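Changelog note: in this version the structure field was regenerated for every chain. One regenerated record is shown below for reference.
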Amino acid sequence: MPSRADIVTFHDPPVPPGSTMYVPGAGPTGEVRVEEPDERWTGWYDDLAGRVRDALGWRVLDLQHVGSTSVPGLAAKPVVDIDLVVADAAHEAAYVPALEAQGFELRVREPWWFEHRVLRHTDPRCHLHVFAPEAPEPVKHRIFRDWLRGNPVERDLYAATKREAAEAARAAGEHSMQYNARKEKVVREIYARAFAAAGLVD
């Protein structure tokens, strides 16, 4: 399990020289569009979660709907984010082929960042984030999700930030990673308040 210190720390290790986070043929998403809340997103998660559980069975240690589509009333990119925790995220043979049989495709491999992997699904659209039990990111994501669910003012602040970042990114011809960077300052400010409310920081 992650430590308290790891949960409240933002780990941003650089990509090692000569490495890339993307598998061959993959890359960041192009134009970003933030859409109004859609009640279908919960159903998309239920469908996708069923596929993951059918593929992996008891190898699923935890599975959570996270990201903006998991927060009722929050504008979002129409892509469901899911956190999957497995015993060893580096051991791709234990889960990737089974997920590929369910329509998922490996797109990102980041061994330098808690062995993070991302698999994409296109119908419904999904980013499946795979971590090991010691990774702090799934805990962070749940705290952020639950804080936004319980605090409409914070949810609305985040929605406005997302819309502004998406508009600026489109105007500049930027991709999804640059869009994420544009909203990072506000994201971390929201996290700070959520961590304080949870008693994780003073």
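Spot check on this record: Residues 49 and 63 are 7 Å apart (CA to CA). The beta strands are 62-66, 80-85, 105-110, 116-122, 125-131.
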